[in-house]
Structure formats: structure tokens, C-alpha cells
Amino acid sequence: MNAILTSVIAVTGTLLGxxxxxxxxxxxxRRTERVAGEERVRQRRLDAYGxxxxxxxxxxxxxxHHWFCLHEGQDAGDEVELRKRSFELRxxxxxxxxxxLLTSEEPALLAAATDAFTAVGKIDRGKDRADVVARRDATRxxxxxxxxxxxxxx
Length: 154
Description:
0% strand, Four Helix Bundle (Hemerythrin (Met), subunit A)
């Protein structure tokens, strides 16, 4: 009888140990999968935000260069190419904006992204050099504000 009791206790202990081990392993796997998923989303956002900020800077530079070409004759022979480049960069920046809009749900971030894109797209509407310089400075601040907001959400 003593041997049977010892065997029952041993089998019960083994089953209990196996069950607890299985439960802890499942919990660990779920946590690992959750952390990996969160990291993938974080990386996707980081890529989208960084790409967008970089394209905004390029788009802004192209718009400024095109304005100076039209209004002050700088690189006047390249006007068609500069216009084409600004259109291409606008399209690429807008595509990157869509990526930001799809990867984030933060209203402040989405507003900062949209405001920056809209302002950069209006640089070429400057009436004179002072107006363009003011628009240039304002867009730099808007791009910086987007980056600062994005940093808080990655």
C-alpha cells in the first residue's frame, strides 16, 4: 500500500509539474509574440515617419529651388526639370504621408504630418523673396514639429 501511495504521489507530482511547465511556456510564448508584434509595428512606424520627414525636406528644397528659378532667374535653363522634380517629390512625399496616415492613430501626429505637407506644397505661392523666406522658415518649423511629435509616438 505504501508503494502504491508513493507511486500515485510521484505520478501526480509529475503531471502537475508538466502542466505547470506547459502553462508557463505558453505564457512566455504569448508574451514573446506580443513583444515581437509590438516591435514590428514600432519599426514600421519608425520607417514611415523617417521616410516621410526626409521626403518633406527634399520636397521643400525642390519647391524653393523652383521658386528661385522662376522669380530670380537662378538656374533658369533648368526650369522644366526643376518643376518636374518638384512634382515627383510631391508625389513621393504624398505617398509617404499616406503611409504615415495608415500606420498611426495619433491625432496630433496626423495633424502635424498633414500640416507640414500642405505648407510645403504652398511654398511656390510666395509673392516675393521675403514671403518665400517666411514660408521656408515656417515649413522648417512644421517639419521639426512633425519629427518631435513622431518621436513621442515610436
